[in-house]
Amino acid sequence: MANLNEIVTPDLCDAYPEVAVLDPIFANFGGVEAFYGPIRTIKCFEDNSLVKQAVAEQGNGAVLVVDAGGSHRCAMLGDMLAELAVANGWAGVVMYGCVRDVDILATLPLGVQAIGSHPRKSEKRGEGQRDEPLTFAGATLKPGQWLYADNNGIIVAEQELVLP
């Protein structure tokens, strides 16, 4: 793939009209505004135990997609977990929920898109599922698909995309 700084999601949509486009409900919170990688998934609600577990593992350039049920009642990712994600080679996190410590997130070399910010931390009950298909924001996201995100939006493809 060409340098990601040269690629934006509109160009990918033009070249690959079959890609899924998530509803425009996400905002950039990370220090990397454009990111991409193979998808790994978590589904959890107001409990970020599995998010902590995932970012502690090697990311190998993957994007962690978290279906937090769209909750606006707590944050599912903050500075400590984001720093762990950076240390373990994750390309980014897409959170269908909220994040916190946004001023610090903006300084980290990690892509982070979420639906909002919230100062309260989540519960820790060890609940949720990993590596399952997720459906939110008008699209279904499956482990192994590729996610591309920038300030224009988020798209999902069945395989890694290359511009002609």
SSE topology sketch:
Elements (H helix, E strand, L loop, with lengths): L8 H7 L4 E2 L5 E2 L6 E9 L5 H7 L7 E5 L7 E3 L1 H9 L4 E8 L2 H4 L5 E7 L11 E2 L3 E3 L2 E3 L4 E5 L2 E5 L7
Parallel strand pairs: 3-4, 4-6, 5-6, 6-7
Antiparallel strand pairs: 1-12, 2-7, 3-8, 3-11, 9-10, 11-12
Helix pairs in contact: 2-3
Give an account of the 3D structure:
The chain has helices spanning about 10-15, 50-55, 80-85, 100-105; strands at about 20, 25-30, 35-45, 65, 75, 90-100, 110-115, 130, 135, 140, 145-150, 155. With about 160 residues, it is α/β, with parallel strands linked by helices. Strands 1, 2, 3, 4, 5, 6, 7, 8, 11 and 12 form a ten-stranded mixed sheet that branches. A two-stranded antiparallel sheet has the order 9-10. α2 (about 50-55) runs parallel beside α3. The longest helix is centred in the middle third of the chain and has 9 residues, at about 80-85.
In brief, what are we looking at here?
The protein is α/β, with parallel strands linked by helices. It is 16% helix and 33% strand.
> H/E series, N to C?
HEEEHEEHEHEEEEEE
Largest sheet: 10 strands, mixed
Alpha-beta content class = alpha/beta
N- to C-terminal distance:
10 Å
| Overall mean pLDDT | 95
The portion of residues assigned to helices is 10-25%
Low-confidence stretches: none
Shape: globular
- Beta-strand share of residues: 25-35%
DSSP strand count: 12
Radius of gyration: 14 Å
Number of helices: 4
Please name the defining characteristics of this protein:
globular; 4 helices; 10-stranded mixed beta sheet; about 15% helix; single chain; about 160 residues; alpha/beta; 12 strands
